[in-house]
Each structure stands twice: as C-alpha cells, then as structure tokens.
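## tool: complex_structure
## caller: assistant
## args:
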Amino acid sequence: MILPRFDVLVPNSVDEAFAMLSRYAEKGIRILAGGTDLLVDLRRPIIPAAIPSCEGCARHKSGSIRSTVDCGWWESDSSRESDRALLTKVQDSIHKYPEYIISLHKLKELRGIAVNEKVNLRVGAMTTITDIERSGIIREKWTALAEGADSLGSPLVRNRGTIGGNIANARPAADTFIPSVALGGVLDIHSEKGSRKVPVDSFASAPGETVMEKGEMITGIEYPAPPEFSGSAYYKLANRKALEICNVGVAVWIALEKPGGPVTDIRVALGAVGPTPILAESVKEVLVGKKPEDANIKKAAKAAREDATPIDDHRGSAWYRSMMVELVTDRMIRLAVERVGGKV
Amino acid sequence: MSKNNSYKILNTRLPRVDAIDKVTGKAIYTDDMSFPGMLYGAILHSPLAHARILNIDTSRAERLPGVKAVVTYKEAGTQPYGVSPARYDETIFCHDKVRYIGDEIAAVAAVDKDTALEAVSFIKVDFEELPVLLDGRHAMDEGQPQLHDMYKNNICARVNWNFGDIEKGRKESHIIRTDHITSKMQDAAFMEPQSVVAEVDSHGNLTMWSSTQAPHYIQRTLAMALNMPLHKVRVIKPAVGGGFGPKASCSTVELATCLLALKTGKPVKTTLDREQVFLHSRARHQFFHTMTTGVKKDGTLSFLEHHCILDGGAYASFGIATVYYAGSLLGGPYRLKNMKYDGYRVVTNKPACGAQRGHGAVIARAAFEVQLDRIAEELGMDPIELRLKNVMEAGETTCNELFVSSFGMKEALEAVRDSAAWKKKRSLAGKTRGTGKGIGAACGFFVSGAGYPIYRSKTYHCTVVTKVDEVGGGVTVSSGAADIGQGSDTVLAMITAEELGLPLDDVRVVSGDSNLSVDLGAYSSRTTLMTGHACKDAARDIKRQILEVIGGKLNIPPEKLDLKDGRVVGIDKDIDFSALREEYLQEHKGFMDLPEGPQLTFREASRIAFLEIGSVVGTGSYRPPKLGGSFKGATVGTSPAFGCSAQVAEVSVDLETGEVTVDNITGAHDCGFAINRTQVEGQMQGSMMMGMGEALMEQIIYNDKGRIMNANLAEYKIPTSLDVPHLDAIIVESNEPHGPYGAKEVGEGAIMPVIPSILNAIYDATGVRIDELPVTPERIIEALKKKRENK
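## result:
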C-alpha cells in the first residue's frame, strides 16, 4: 500500500472532533472511521488515474506529447485558460490527498445500537458492521439492515467498517446504505455550528458526493419503529458469495394492514443501478392500497425497473442490471410480505 | 485407496516440513528480508499502451534528497532477453517504444520507499502516442498497428501441424461438429506479490533473493541481460507464496533491482504492489479456439481440426511454448489418429502473458471436452461412456508421438463416475435438463515435466547433493529445486528419509539456491519426477558409502546390510556391532545422550563412515532420455510421463439471475504414486478451486486505452472460502515406470478437467451452452434470453 503523507488527528470528544473538522476544513481533512474505504481511496495508484496531456505548447508544437507527470510548459506561469485548467487537473491527480486524517476511534459515544422509548432504532455512526450483523433486535425488526450487514465485504472488513463510513462514502452499491433508504433512516449530521437531520434517501448527490458540508460529520442514524404487520428484506446480486460489490442490490420495506391485507406503505431501494442508491418512488403509487398479490407485485417490480438508471461498466451491463432490478424487487417484495406472515 | 506397500515414509500423510513455520509466521519471505544500509527500489511504468519514447529526463528525480540512483535504458543497455532464445524481444527498460500500460521505463533506488516512489513520479517522459492494438482476434489483419519489427503482422509464433490424415478421418465420420470457445486473460492471483532483494559483495558477486519459481533460469537471464559471468550471479529463493507460472520467467523488477544494487553498491529491495502484479502479468493468455471434431457412429474419434489464436500481450515471454502446448496436449488422453493444428500467438498492447498452471492447454482442453459433450448428446451416448470408449492405455503413443508409459485414465473416469453416483444422477438428465440442477464430466492430460529445457542444452535438468553430518546423525539435502508452496521440500525430505531409514526430522532440506545445484525450477509439473529421481540417487549413493564402510569393518558384504528405522540392520541375520559401538563411545567421552541397544544407530554408522573415508556426500543427477518426434516443435509436449485426470461437477443455477453455485466436485487424478497423499489431494483441491474461479469469475478487464480496470483483488474475482463446494479428491496410482517409486505429476494436470466439467454441468442445468469464459451470471441470462427469442 502506497499512501500519501498526512497528519493524523485523534479527538477525545465529539466536540473536539467538530472543532478540528472546522479548523482544518480548508486544508483538506478526511474522516477515518473504519478505514476500509478511506485507505483504499487514498492509495496512490501506480498508473495515475488522469494522465496529463499537452495539447500543444512552445516545446511540443505537434500537440501529441504526453508526459507522465508534466511537460514543463505548465510549470511556467501561463496565463492561458486551458493551461490553468490542465494545471488544476494535474494537481488534482497528483495532490488530491488531504493534509489531515481525523480518526474517530476514541469516540465511544458514537458506537452503539439503542432502541428509544418510541421504539425507534438509533445506530451510532461508529457502530461496526459486525455489531449490526450480530444485533438480535435489528435482525428481528429492521431485517433488511441486518441482511445488508451480512453481505458486506468479509468478516475482516465487517469488523472494521462502520455504518457511518459506509453511508458517508456514498457509493451506489453500499450494502448498509441501500437498506437504510428502504427503512426510512434519517442521519444526524453535526458540526461546530449545530446539527441537522437528513433522510438517507436524500443524502447522496452523486457517486462519492453528499449534501454534507465542510466541517460536518455523521454522528448516527435513526430508523423509525416498524409498525405492526411490516417487514423488510435485502438481496445483493453478485458473482461470488463474499467480498463483493453488488451488481444489483434491492431492499424492500413493506407495511400491510394485516397479513395478506392491502399494502399501507412500501419503500423500495435500489443499489448499483444509478449514481446513488435510489428510492423507487413509483412502486409506492403502484402498490399502496392494493393487496400484495402476484399481479400487483409484478407491476410494482416493473415500476422499480422504470425508476432505475443502470449503466454499462466493467462490473456488468445495463440491460442485465435493468432486468435484475425487476426480478430481485419482485423476489424481495414477496419475501418481505412472507415475513409479515402473508403468502403470495 | 489406502496405503498398500512396505514404505515407512512414502505414501503417508506426514505433515509438510515447512508447515509450522508458515502457519506461525516464522517463514521468511523475500519482503521480510532486510540488510543494513538497504535501499528501496521503485519502478516507473508506462501510462500509455503504445507510444514512442522521445525523451526521458531524470534530472529532477536525481536531485531529490535520498535518491541514490536512477536508471533507464541508458544505464541498463539494450541487450535483448526473454524466455525463448528465438524470441528475445524484451530489454530491461523500454528505449524506443512502450508497448503496454505498465511497460517499465526506469527505476529508482532511494533511502526509503516513499522517496523512491516520489522520485519515480519526478521522471519526465515525453511520448508520441501511437495507435493501440487491443483485439487479439484481429491482430494479424492488414493495417493494424505493428508492435515489433521482428513480428510481421504481429505474429509472434505460429504452429502448423498435421498428424495422420484429416481427410480420411473426415470421410470416416458419422458426426462432424465445429464449435468455438473464447476466454479472457487471467491473473494467477498468487498471495505473495513479487519481491526482490539484490546485493553485490566486494568481489563483484551478485546475490539476488527473489520470489521466483525458477532460480536457474533467472540466474541465466540476469547474467545475460546484465552482461555478467554466470558464476558471478547467484539466485536464492526464500519462502514463496505461490507462483502458478508467472514467476517462472525473469522479470524487470529482478533485473532492475540487480542493476540498482550494482550501481549503488548497496543492497536494494523492491516489492511489487498488487497493481504491479497485474501490470506485469505473464499469466494466462486469451484464447480463441475453433475446433472441428468427427466421430464414427459408435463414438470412436476420427479427427480433430483445431485453430487457435492466442492473444499474448506485448512480449513473447513463455508464449511460444504456450502456443505449442495448446495444440500438442490434445494428442491425449483419447485415441486420436488424425489431428491438425494451426496456432497463432499474436502480440497486442496489453501486459505480456506467459505460463499459468496447465500451461497453454487449459482452455483448449475445456473447448475439446465441451465439444465431446455436445457430440455425446448428438450420438445419444452417455458422455462418460463416450470418453471411456476412446481413452488410451499405458504403452500407447499419441499421433504427435507422445508415449504414455502409465495411464490410469480409465480408472480415474470410473472412479469419479461411481463416486459421484453419475449413472443415477445422469439418468434423470432427459427430465432435468434445464431445470437448474446439472452434472457434467470431463477428462484431462498433462506432462510430468517438460522433456527439454527452455534453452537448447544437454544440461542435466536437476542435480541433488546430499551430505551426511560429519558429527553423525542427520543429513542435509541440497538442491536448486524451488518449493513455491507446492511442497517439493517435503517430497525431497520424504524420499531421503525413506531411503536412509531416517525419521523426517533428521533430514534437512536446503533448496532454491542456484549455488547449490542445477535445477530447472518449479514449472511444467516436473519437480517430483525429476528432482525426485536425483534425490533418490543421492540418498542411495550415501547409503552405499555408509554400508560399505560398516560392512568392510565387520567383514560383511554391504548388500547384506540395510538402513531401517534409524539403524543399521542385517538383512538375513542379527549382527554383532559391539566393536563399532566401542569405537563410537571412545569418540564421545563425556556425552550424555549415547546410543544403546544391540543395533548400530545411523548416528554411529554415519560418524564412523566419516572417520573412515572423510566427507560422505551423495549425488544424483537426472535428465530425461531423448523424447518425442522429429517434426518442428516436437519437443513441446514431450515428457518422461503423463498425468491424467477425470472430474464430475455438480452445479445449481438460478435460471432467473444466472447465479451459479457449484455444489460438488469429484475429481480423480493419476499421479502414478503419491509420495505424500495429503499433498496430492491438496494440489487437486487447489486446482479445483482455481479452475472454478477461471470458469466462473476470473477475467482481466481492459478499457479502450488498454488500461486494466480491475487490477486489484477486490475487483478481480477469485473464489472465496464461501464459494468452495464439497470437494472429493480421489488418488489413482498407476505406478509410472519412469518416475521415482512410480510417481508423476499432479500440480497442473489436476486443473485440466475442472473448467469443462463445470461448463458441461452448467449446460445440463440450463440447457444453454456459453462459449465465452468466464461464465458469469450475465452471460448465462444472455444465452437463456437468446434461446427464448429463437424459439
């Protein structure tokens, strides 16, 4: 592993952490929770992701010259707009790394699973994936989250990785992010200036990008208490049985009037078929008020497929993902209904 | 099968000699090594797949404090080297062109790794980009970018073979089918990335420790490319975390690190990052196979016409052998009188491919075994019956002149058929085809050691020197053989212990050092058979010398004496050793742990032998007899013996998502004779897992610039422990006449039937054939969709 140079800050309290985040915001600071994403992200690749290219300069008039690091011409104080743009790109690729890493490992108050008097579930941001996987109450009442935790990485990754980190990293395939969207999770986001609540389904704005601002940090996530006759399920479709990034991930939460009775509410979250985990809004329109019957579920699954915007990439093709969104949604709705005690 | 012989050590399940050190972390791998004043190396790789180098400016890198040397082709020279003398197409560093993303341009030695890496990033290279060639299928077409002047139309090697009479075979055929299979480049995914430490002493002797499979070949290449006398270069292999082929050839990281050590006069260590392992590659080629096979009405094979293009990436590496193996090893295990093969190994702007477990023959075998399955279906014949009808027997010679001296092919097939309850499960095939549950079978055939060295030479392939402790007691086996995790040190220790009647703990094996002996290395599944022979001879040489001394002293012919259970024993009668005991005790006044009992211990006997004749050293040397035919390329595929194997795989396929679960694999392999039964099973199980990964998951993915998109083990998928099915490994022992104690290979042959048995099982489960590897869920769904649309 080749890491860039940085200093590590270790706050002893959340307030100290907020102060540090604010103080170093402009110098570049990144939060270390479990590190299972951050360290991979910081690793300097052997072949740089962006190779600067010279589109023509005094030295290289033909314009077909590339250099591994620089061509020298942009080092001169060029005033050309395109030169400066390139300079920025080069610097981004070489020096995108933060000057500070803030490690939250001492902040015990950020770790833990609790159910409050309103029977809402609160999971601290530093709670490990293994903690979630092993929590009986989560498995019983917020099943999709437990299943997301089960399918994330390997035991080693789960022991280190945290739910706060998994969500903050904002990857479209994040295994606890997707069920958190279905389960209606709400994030507690704090900074030196105060705090705010952000629903998980509107947290990510693009791959790796979120609504969080400089100086902010996730401290926990709260899930509403499941009403009677509700259930959830998550499935991750992948090529092997562990250490996988899902090809398609679907989490379903469904609430029925009674077992077998009409659907009072449903939330379907889709992973790896859009720039962020997606809440398939149209499923609600199709299914709420209807009985969870074969034909209705099929329609709902089709609606989910319409909401997905998969792309072709090295992990899979758009057509396959699109087809699988419908299939897995169909299966997960049925499974969730079964878990409520109904039959399809 | 159980142990049914009089051996004490051989054919047992003794623990490996390196097991404790490895599981406790005590074993020293190259990257664990450190020397005072050691520098760290880093390499500059090309970011472009095809470009002309206009200028390299290292001045800024040289100015960085802590940098001790920066080397490019200017320091390294442009002496071409490679694996096969006829295709020396590499230089230590690129000088005129770069030919793939990752091609090595320069190296730096600095006081620490960070500084070395930073310096590398300061090296300025001006390139002129050239058009990039990525598609191996079209590499030979008119107008494609040309990679090397020496390879016209990008053809690095071609083979055109015609054995028997194809036209006659065609006329005799009742069914003729043509099928295609393509694969993707794959990585060996060994655990330990390549690592090198190099040091030069005050007499100009270069020593290199490296994570290598073949110290001998690396020694030769270093001497050649660095322009040094061979005897001044020593290569040592510490513990190695897997090789599977890519570590069998000399790499730039080895050459560059030696060059940096020569230049600075300091020890230098360079360890590759996982991304660099993918960039360096030298792993599995990409294959495009087209096979046309004919059979008679009764299932007898009448001919095979085989066309193959191998995409080998930017350089030849082992590729010439690969293109030959891809054709020659289809000569067995079936009787096939007529075989035509046209193979083309082309170069493209991707990392160079080389040897990987089952060298060249794995995808060809998969293609052929899948085709046999399709033929069996057309004939209405059980696929195992079709195979049994055609299998060769010991004493037969293939159409391309490979002689099989032992051959448990029939036994292996019958063993997997019966053990997997094939008949019962397969009888349902008509009803269950396409229902998501499937079963499939396949066979395999492989060399037990390449018949000839890579460079033309009369050299012995291996020598072993075994020396008795001069204080008496134990022995030390010295060998150049490379234990890369496959367990060859244990095999050498067991053979020596068996021959000398010693417990395994009294045999020390020192190996993997080019100064100890010549040994061509761990490739082509050669070590047990070849080094095993030399080891056995060396031990017998010692035994003879000791028994001659003892016999001489007691006036007993040495042939009436034997070494057993750590003692000298009389063969016909008990012998009075008291005079020799007295001699030994006189030598050891004041020692506590003195021998007792009526018999003479090995410790006494070996000490007395030393006192009598001086050093007791035994040697053994082995090289195969002249093998194979006289046609061009006849040497590739020859071997003193051939292994064969059969396998049944059972799978479950989710017909809606395409997810495959391999439920059971039952494999049988004829290894001639199992020196260590657990190790043989381990090789079989490892092959099953590796083959399963290649069948279902493994593929290097390139973007349109030639950049690898999954150069890490998160995105290059290999099976995890959760993907491992139930594995049943059955050992077949055919007693190979040319092998030590009847032993032959298992290391690579065992992978041969894995991919096709899984492919055939997937067909049984789904009703569709997928002719592109790996068979991912998406490819299965695509094939099922096509089938539905065509209905």
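## assistant note: Residues 33-130+191-242+246-280 of chain B form a domain with the Aldehyde Oxidoreductase; domain 3 fold (CATH 3.90.1170.50). Residues 549 and 612 of chain B are 7 Å apart (CA to CA). Handing back to user.
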